[in-house]
Amino acid sequence: MTGIESDHALAIEVDSLTKHYGKLLAVDHVSFKVKQGELFGFLGPNGAGKTTTVRMLTGIIRADEGSASILGHKAGSLGAKQMSGVLPEMANAYTDLSGWNNLMLVSRLYGVPDGEARERGEGLLQKLGLQPRKDDLVKGYSKGMKQRLILCMALISDPQILFLDEPTSGLDVQSARLIKGLLQELNARGKTIFLTTHDMDEANQLCHRVAIINQGRIVAIDAPEKIRLATGGVHSVEVSFNGEASIETLAKLPCVNSVKKLGDKYRLYTADPGELVASVVSFSGVHRLKIVSLNILAPTLEDAFVALTEKETK
Amino acid sequence: MPFGATVLQQARRCLTIARKDIRIYYSKGPVVIFGVLFPVFLFLSFTIGRHLEVDFMIPGLIGMVLFFTATAISPIVVPWETQARTLERLMSCPVTIETIILGDILASFAFGLGISLVPIVIGLALGITISSPLVLAAAVVLAAFGFAALGNVFSIPPTNLPATVNMIASVVKFPVVFISGVFIPLDELPAWGRAISYVSPLTYFTDIARRCIQGQGYLPVAVDLLALLAFAILLLAVAVTFHRRTMPKRI
């Protein structure tokens, strides 16, 4: 189950990768392929094995079984690391060094010539909005600034492949948007990106294909839209009124399977959204409520994700 | 890439890691306290009021300072990097675990080498003469490297607490000082005391320093130098072998 045509050059090839932590089977014979230039999402609930897989691919930990290669080099080898830029989950820059010195440190560890590193570093810091603070110690940076700096550190060697573990997790909207925009730009320039994320919208917007991992095993791997459609699921109608409506009354409308109140909106799950819209309009007239907004929602990637991971867990 | 080119590339990156350690860790509190202040005060507390000759005191002081400074940084770097969450980033770079470990040892080695000049200069100012400066220099270099490697061995247990490593280091370092001829020369120790002292690398350094400054050592110079070289190689091998196993467990 790889969902990839065989004639594309491969960036990542993983075969039966397995990792135990004591008795816990963290990653269970995972296999997949990522082609060059692809933006590949790796999704899964907490503890599913995402970070362990990334760590095996980036050479931080060794696999117990199986093999992986990065652009033809054995994962973890110096050759593979030289071609990869890595943004580890929960990683930090050296807080006692300035942003600029962190960047230059990584450039030297990758053997980037000084002149090239300086030019690229200036460009990256400018692009990610860190140029004015580049000489400040990192201990004074906000979380968003640190994450942007770590992304700069991952990019300073101009790697062919990027491993990003939750790059936008916990960031403010501006920082997250900046990073997502840069990832799209990098991918458009041909970089292969392996992205783990919890954010289904992010995966849906950015990724050509996603793999969903649960309890150490891959449960689905395909384009986000194909996974969403293949999983099925129910449609919903999301409506907000200019006043309070009774959930019990809404639940009794024809075709309604269930109702949830989400902030100032009501989400009504149904198998027949067209029929339900007519019922909601009629309901608003009877109860003298004005409809403020009304949307028909198809099952999302998040719905598919929940369905797939819950099915596996059961 | 040919093997020679890989070695050269990793050597350059090893120096980059050492420079990083020097910039970050030389000013850290535990390094200054355990590496510089502590040995000086410990030495003074054992020597003040005993009317000892400068020729006797300076070799011991150089040995103490070199031992404590060269073992001040290498034990704390890896746990500190684990705690600060910079280790995973470092390990994902194209450097081997051996390169990381050797870089950390080199930073500690340079610290020991630099600070050991202070008691040597003080001794010269107080009128000591060094009969064989080259022999002493060779001994300082070998001992600083061996002590730095010993410091790195202390950080093998995969803890992220520098204080825990400092505790482990102290448990070893203090007994070593007392059995190494710093306060009592080897020829004045009982036979059983001398037998124990031979397991300490500091013994061989103190002996050679006494020969170069006091003019009297217990063991032949070649034996002292070879022992220091053997300890340096052995401790480096132990550090690299065990860190290879424990470093991935820190993540």
Description of the molecule:
The complex is a heterodimer of chains A (314) and B (251). Chain A has 2 domains: 10-230, 3-Layer(aba) Sandwich (Rossmann fold), CATH 3.40.50.300; 234-298, Alpha-Beta Plaits, CATH 3.30.70. In chain A, 36% of the residues lie in helices and 29% in strands. Chain A has 11 helices and 14 strands. Chain A has a 6-stranded mixed sheet, with helices on both faces. In chain A, strands 2-1-4-5 form a 4-stranded antiparallel sheet, covered by helices on one side. The radius of gyration of chain A is 23 Å and the shape is globular. The two termini of chain A are 22 Å apart. The mean pLDDT of chain A is 91. Chain B is mainly alpha-helical and 251 residues long. Chain B has one domain. Chain B contains 11 helices and no strands. The chains are: A alpha/beta (314), B mainly alpha (251).
Could you provide a short overview of the structure?
The complex is a heterodimer of chains A (314) and B (251). Chain A has 314 residues and is an alpha/beta fold.
Strand portion of chain B = under 5%
| Residues in helices of chain B, as a percent range | over 70%
DSSP strand content of chain A:
25-35%
CATH fold description of the largest domain in chain A:
Rossmann fold
- Named at the architecture level, the CATH assignment of the largest domain in chain A is 3-Layer(aba) Sandwich
Principal-axis shape of chain A equals globular
What is the highest CATH level, the class of the largest domain in chain A? Alpha Beta
Q: Give the quaternary arrangement of the chains.
A: heterodimer
Topology:
The complex is a heterodimer of chains A (314) and B (251).
Chain A lengths: L9 E12 L2 E12 L3 E5 L6 H8 L7 E6 L2 E2 L3 H5 L1 E4 L11 H11 L4 H14 L15 H13 L5 E5 L7 H16 L3 E6 L2 H7 L2 E6 L2 E6 L1 H8 L3 E7 L5 H5 L4 E7 L2 E6 L2 H14 L4 E7 L3 H13 L1
Parallel strand pairs in A: 3-8, 3-9, 6-7, 7-8
Antiparallel strand pairs in A: 1-2, 1-4, 4-5, 9-10, 11-13, 11-14, 12-13
Helix pairs in contact in A: 3-4, 3-5, 8-11
Chain B lengths: L2 H23 L3 H19 L6 H17 L3 H10 L3 H6 L4 H29 L7 H22 L7 H17 L12 H7 L3 H13 L7 H26 L5
